[in-house]
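Minimal example, chain plus zinc ion.
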Amino acid sequence: MRSSIILVLILVSSCKQVKSDWIDRSLHEGLYNLDYSESFETYSINKNPKNIKNTIGNLEEAKVYFDAIFKEDLSFAVLFVDNQNWDKYAYAPPPGMPQSFYGGNILLGLGKSVMASRWEQTLSQFSGSEIDTLKFHFGDSIDLDLFFRDGLSLHELAHLYQFVKIDDGMQRRWLSELFANLCQVGAAKNLSNNSVYYQMDVFQQLLIDKELWGDVQYRSLQDFEEHYFDIMKLGRNYGWYQTQFYVIAKQLHEKYGDDVLQNFRNLLIAIDPKKVSEIEDDKLELLIEQYLGKEALNIINWDHDS
Ligand SMILES: [Zn+2]
């Protein structure tokens, strides 16, 4: 009897340990522990990295917002790595593209990301008034990392609230990306400083209005599932999909408010492929309606098929 009580105690304490510390620390090798935040762990390839306090402040506020919505007290680590060392830590190029890992880590760039510098080189395609608008939101130097690092860091944090519940279980990749965009919109709208929201909104709207993604190879949701890694490698095509998801996410949040975040995560948990078998499109549509609301399907309606 006594030994079985001890066994139960050991089991309970070991379960607790796994839940409270899911962070994969093998990824922190070679990084300095910065201790820049009391809300989460921070690491960097440099001892004293510059210009990351603002990013950390936004993530602290986003954590408060997500914790309240998802009823969590999520532990996670944010890693800052420069372009030179990117490939040692990242699972995908280009250097500086924010990414999250199943083990509770977010990787962010230090210095100018490749995406920001590519887009900053194409600013000549914008008219005088568009440049003025960009300067208003991104400063006179038009620092697009305010979107590509700070804005997108909220998106990556959202994925961690998904991964902590369902790991890499994805019934559809596009649903997972739509969820992260939705959380990104909700968090940015709730930051004490609304500039992050306007930066992500104004920049992406300009890209859409001027069709600056160009002629992309893949356009359908089925393509997104079947050619995900090819699309990621074709950076522009991936950006095009994310911008479409952003527009839908914005409409979902306008229609349903913050409640839709929790409902959406519940949907992802309910369709976790580790628990249920593959769900056909028509059944999935019913579930989207059931979890998100009647109008959700109209908003999500995808009219870009190849
Ligand atoms: Zn994502």
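The longest strand covers residues 77-82. The chain has 14 helices and five strands.
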